[in-house]
Amino acid sequence: PMFLFEWSHKDPVIRELFHNRDFKLGMSHALDRETINNVVYFGQGTPSQGVTSPYSPWGRTTEEGRQLMEQWRNLGIEYDVDKANELLDSVGLDQRDSDGFRLRPDGERLSLVMITGNPPESRAVDVMEMAIEYWRAVGLDITLNLQEPAAVSERRTTGDYDIDGWDAWTGYYIPTIPDTLYPVGAGYCGFRQVAMWYNTKGKEGEAPTPGDPMDRLLQAYEKMRAATDPEERNKWVLEGVKIHINDGPFMLAAVNDIPNIVVARKNLRNIPDFAFTGSWTQGAPGCTHPPLYFY
Fold first, then answer.
1. pLDDT tens by residue, 108-147
2. pTM of the predicted model, to two decimals?
3. How far apart are CA 112 and CA 144, in angstroms?
4. Quick count: other Cβ atoms within 10 Å of Cβ 277?
5. DSSP readout, the chain?
6. Largest Cα–Cα distance of the chain, in whole Å?
7. Could you tell me the CA-to-CA distances from 24 to 59, 62, 91, 201, 229 in Å, in that order?
8. Confidence class for position 279, pLDDT limits 50, 70, 90
9. Quick one: average pLDDT of 95-109?
10. What is the dihedral of CA 73, 76, 79, 85, to 10 degrees?
11. CB contact set of 219 (below 8 Å; sequence gap of 6+)
12. How far is CA 271 from CA 74, 257, 283, in A?
């Protein structure tokens, strides 16, 4: 799952923290991704930062893209409690209360709630619960609130939440699913207010601050959308990725590239060894050409 922070948070203290790169890097270094992968996914996934699909063409078709994918996937993923504490101390969270939880710069305990619409029996919730335990171990008072999907959707629209735990995050081909990289649609939950401002031409939502990462991502999106050839289009996708690497992480993750195990009869032939099974973009299982299966 992806952990998405409400960029336009109504509390100015929390908003400032969520805009601070070191705050999220501190949270990132507090996660033991290897253990999460082994416990929840039996070691079948890959420890990773929150990225678009590792099979996105932008990260596989050019050498620059491959290098950027590697940088993004490995951004701040080392499990290092000392570094996590150092970074969290550096952003003004160096004081703690009698229970060991960090205090905000205004003296109140920093208490955050992660909402999710995932069912309690899901592996995604297992990951969220483990992540919260790691964060509490470095003094962050975070709790998990499981809600009905409709309630979560409403909170995403209004921005009435702290952290959004979302199970599915893809973004295979960015030009057709841009809101997994740029703040331009419903998929970019942590930045819905910026997306609303963009899509309504300023009538609703919240404008990005000129020159801030969201503003620069929107500029890159506009240039990507205006590009008339694939190379130029990919150039502006990579510019967006660079903003995520240099100014982010804007969203955190623990494990990526988790395989879906497919069981087939022994005498069913012509089944591909590798295929996309969970993405509506490719139309699974249609992308595997079922009419060509045979016994």
1. 999 999 999 999 999 999 999 999 999 999 999 999 999 9
2. 0.93
3. 9
4. 14
5. -EEEE-TT-SSHHHHHHHT-HHHHHHHHHT--HHHHHHHHHTT-SEE--S-S-TT-GGGTSSHHHHHHHHHHHTTT-S--HHHHHHHHHHTT---B-TTSPBBPTTSSB-EEEEEE-S-TTSHHHHHHHHHHHHHHHTT-EEEEEE--HHHHHHHHHHT--SEEEES----SSTTTSGGGTSS-STT-GGGHHHHHHHHTTTSSS-PPPTTSHHHHHHHHHHHHHH--SHHHHHHHHHHHHHHHHHH--SEEESEE-PPPP----TT-B---SS---S-TTTTTTGGG-GGG-B-
6. 69
7. 24, 29, 10, 30, 36
8. low
9. 96
10. -160
11. none
12. 33, 20, 16
Q: Give the type of residue at 150.
A: A
Bridge-based pairing state of the strands 255-256 and 46-47: antiparallel
Q: List Cβ neighbours of 257 (8 Å cut-off, separation of 6 or more).
A: 45, 46, 48, 54
Mark residue 242 as left, alpha or beta (left: phi above 0; alpha: psi -120 to 50; beta: remaining). alpha
Residue with the two structure tokens 């199970």? 167
Residue range 203-258, pLDDT digits in tens = 999 999 999 999 999 999 999 999 999 999 999 999 999 999 999 999 999 999 88
Q: Are 172 and 69 in contact (CB under 8 A)?
A: no
Rounded CA separation 262/259 (Å): 9
Question: What gap in Å lies between CA 190 and CA 188, rounded to an integer?
Answer: 6
Dihedral (C-alpha) 197, 201, 207, 212: value to the nearest 10 degrees? 110
> Residue 34 and residue 195: Cα distance in Å, rounded?
34
Residues 150 and 100: their CA atoms lie apart, in Å, by: 35
Amino acid at 38: N
4: β partners = 164, 251
